[in-house]
Structure formats: structure tokens, C-alpha cells
Amino acid sequence: MKLYPLKFKPVFKEIVWGGSKLRSILGKDVAADKRIGESWELSGVKGNLSVVTNGYLKGNNIQELIEVYMGELVGEKVYEQFGQEFPLLIKFIDANEPLSVQVHPDDATAAQRHHAYGKTEMWYVLDAEPGAELIVGFGRETNLGEVLEHIKSNTLKDILNVEKVKSGESYFIPAGCIHAIGKGLLIAEIQQTSDVTYRVYDWGRNLPNRPLHIDLSMDVICYHAAQGHKVELPQTLNRPEQLVACPYFTTNKLTLTDSVSRCYREMDSFVVYICTGGAATVTCGNQPENIAVGETLLIPASLAGEVLVKPQERAELLEVYIG
Predict the structure, then answer these.
(1) Is the pLDDT score of 208 beyond 90?
(2) Long-range CB contacts (< 8 A, 24+ apart) of 137-143?
(3) What is the average per-residue pLDDT within 288-310?
(4) In this structure, are 12 and 122 located in the same domain?
């Protein structure tokens, strides 16, 4: 059976810091009384595999698709490297309260300790309330002893790099960078397929199901002053702006008032579109699929040679691929 642009059912995560913006802003089908902190839009994490919602492959999960279609779906080079595991996790995050201060290990450490991949990620800010903040790295050079002392005295924020945030900004968070999402933020997160998180500080919540991982985290943290994490680009219309390019993914932003043609043949990779504003029709292989704000669409590698993206008046999309 021939592949086509694929949509998936979100996996919702009820979390103590979650809010209501996934429903009110992105139109997600979640109960008003639930504190949903995350919507996993496209996931290959075991136990949280994304399931197709459109077309004749409806009901199949992402791993089953890779088993059948292999490089046709993800790209030959991607399949050679990752096999049947989808290499990216795409999320929306709704922070009604601050997330824990945390850090993620790199590939080598995660493989040794958890038989997992490390976690390099990026954030794109969809909505920011006045005064909203992100923590990205340290405000100055520090060291293990000083960090431990600040954790003990509940003053860790004093040495962290705090960024005032507004909608449309992007931040790159490599493995080893200490970080946290503050309250009042709705964020699209693109990351390696990994659920390995070390909590360094949780704002005194001390909940039994949210343990700290101070011992594990101290030897993976980068203690240098934060530098180069914020992505600042002028907005351009109808052509891609590159936000992040790293070994794990490339993310571009498309702000469209007119149709654009995109060709990814040389990438040998699947392409993911995340709609962050407006709506568009994406056509590849003569197969159109609509995508509206809050939706995510996977373009199989075999169809990524020529892709036409036509906005419905105006659209803002994140475009993600490997390479």
C-alpha cells in the first residue's frame, strides 16, 4: 500500500504543573478539569507510540509502520541508524506552573546508564504570558560545589540564566544544559527520542512521584555560562528560516502568505510539519492533507521529493527533518 501524509493521535500527559492552553489555544480534545501538561504529537517512545488517525493506515502505530515501510517512511540513512525506533519526539508543553530545573544526559551517558538515547532538544514559544521566563544554562561560570550549595540553600535560581520570553522565540537546549520552563508558557518541543530526565530542583514541591536525581545529574551538567542558546532571526515571508541545525534534527520556520514548494530529496529523511499558527494544505504525491494550528503532519521520505505548502490566508509552520 502506498504511503501518504500521516496524522497521529496525541498522547496526553496529566502533570502537576499542567494547564488549559492545549485546549483553549490549540483546540486539543482534553477535559476542562484535567491538568494536561504535555501533548505528545509524534512519539516512538515505548509505551507511548503514536497511532495513525487518517487514511487506510489508521490504527497502526509508528513502530508498525517502520517495520513495514522502513526507509520509505523514515529515509534509508535514518533507518540504517535507528532501525525500527522513530528518532524524534514532538511535543506541545503547557506550563501553568514552573517545570522542575533539570538536565539531560548525552548519548554516551544515557546508553551506559539507561540503554537509551541522550536528549538534545529545542523550544519554540507559541504563547507567553507577560513576565514569562525560561531558564537556560547558568548566568556565569560555576562549579559542582557551588551548585550543590545553592541547591541546599534553595537559592539555585540565583546562579541560573533567566530569559524573559515572548511568543515566536526559539531556544536550543543541548544535552548537559541545565534548564527549566517557567509558568505561563505554551511551547513546541522537538527532541531526541528519549524520556531520560534528571531533576535537579523542583521548587520545593517534594512529591513522591517526582524524585530528584542530584547524584546522577552533577557529572552531566555543563557548568559554563550560557551562550548561544537563544535563536534570534528576523521574520521573513514565504521562505524558510533555519532555527536549529544539529546532528539530531534540523528545524526551519515557515511564515506563509503564499504557496511554497519544498524539495527534501537530498535529505533522505521524513519531514514533520508542526502548525503553530493559521492553517495550510500540504500536498505531496498528489495527495493533499490539511493541517491547522496545533496539528502535526508526517511526510514520508518517499514522498518528500516535492512538497507544496499552500496557506489558508496565512500559516506558520515548523519544518523538521534529520540532516
Answers:
(1) no
(2) 137/161, 137/177, 137/178, 137/179, 137/222, 137/224, 137/225, 137/226, 137/227, 137/229, 138/178, 138/223, 138/224, 138/225, 138/226, 139/225, 139/226, 140/225, 141/223, 141/224, 141/225, 142/223, 143/223
(3) 96
(4) yes
